Amino acid sequence: MQKVRVALIGLGNVGKAFLQLMTEKETLLQKQYGLSLVLTAVADSSGGLIDGRGIAPAALLSHKQGGRGVAAFDGGQAGLPSPDVVAQAPADLMLEASPVNLQTGQPGLDCVRTAIGRGMGVVLANKGPLVHDYAGLSAAARAAGVGFAFSATVCGALPVVNIGQRDLAGCDIRSVRGIFNSTSNSILAAMAAGGSYSQALRQAQLDGIAEADPTLDVEGWDTANKLVIVTNSILGVPATLRDVQPVTGITGITPEQIAEGARRGEVVKLVATAERSGDGCHLSVQPQWLPSEDFLAGVSGWEMGIVFDTDIMGLQQLKVDERGPIPTAGAMLRDVINLSR
């Protein structure tokens, strides 16, 4: 049995879902993969907890579901910054699922750098560090000889990064098109059913899917983040958010426009596009009116999808229908398993 000590940074919806999976999948991990995960450090906005003997995931999950932070858990330290938790954690893998910070990538960026510097493998659900310093982090991980995985950062459980990096090996990927944000896609679907933008957004917020501040989703920035990760990690072209032009969201789309598009046989979708141009790529995120036979036109409601146009493996078209944080936490677990092999 291989014991892997895990430090989990961020205990929001995805972090809590990972705690749930640690409990529910414990037997499967042991029987099928010979893997025993031991939680030795955690951090949230209230503070941190470090215990080399192991922290019970089920007990911590119950504590968090009661509305209490790590600092109030037995042994927790109020105000302990997450990079300090990583610096002290007796761990083999650091899992980073804290909120995305577009401005600086922090504190996730420092957590990743600290983990790599200590010889820990890294699994990311947080897009911020990759968007800010993909090249530096991936180079540091290679130099340190540690695992570096982030399949959860693009389309949750859909293995976009894994397919692009592994299964399309040897291909010239000429372009990538995708619907990367399920919140925007579901709002457009609700508007197509007759609702206004404000009604559709409000219902998504009441359902607990859309954030109270939905700007990253509906203005296209969440999609742009994911496109930058795809461009760097799959296409091998250095890119930052500044290279995505334009970034246009869905707030200007009206039910009348959607109805008129339907009469033309077209569907509007928020589409991320990366098209090779010489040694670089042209990157954009914007609403596109797609003919009904287009694969992405059939990516509906809460689904996300992607189309790879390759030279020798044809059009690779995939989509996923996932709701809630469990699939994204499942993608983190997938990365943990793969890095531990």
Radius of gyration: 20 Å
Residue-averaged pLDDT: 95
Q: Any idea how many domains?
A: 2
Which strand-content bin applies to the residues?
15-25%
Task: Calculate the terminal CA-CA distance, rounded to whole Å.
Answer: 12 Å
Spatial shape: globular
Largest sheet: 7 strands, mixed
Level of helix content?
25-40%
Assigned CATH class of the largest domain: Alpha Beta
Q: How many individual β-strands?
A: 13
**What count of helical segments does DSSP give?**
13
Could you characterize the architecture of this molecule?
- This protein is of the alpha/beta class and about 350 residues long.
- It has two domains: about 1-155 and about 325-340, Rossmann fold (3-Layer(aba) Sandwich), CATH 3.40.50.720; about 170-320, 2-Layer Sandwich (Dihydrodipicolinate Reductase, domain 2), CATH 3.30.360.
- Helix content is about 40%, strand content about 25%.
- It has 13 helices and 13 strands.
- It has helices spanning about 15-25, 25-35, 55-65, 80-90, 110-115, 130-145, 160-165, 180-190, 195-205, 215-220, 220-235, 255-265, 325-340; strands at about 1-10, 35-45, 45-50, 75-80, 95, 120-125, 150, 175-180, 245, 265-275, 280-290, 305-310, 315-320.
- The strands form two sheets. Strands 4-3-2-1-5-6-7 form a seven-stranded mixed sheet, sandwiched between helices.
- Strand 6, helix 6 (about 130-145) and strand 7 form a beta-alpha-beta unit.
- Helix 5 (about 110-115) runs parallel beside helix 6 and helix 8 (about 180-190) crosses helix 9.
- It is globular and about 65 Å long.
- The N and C termini lie close together (about 10 Å).
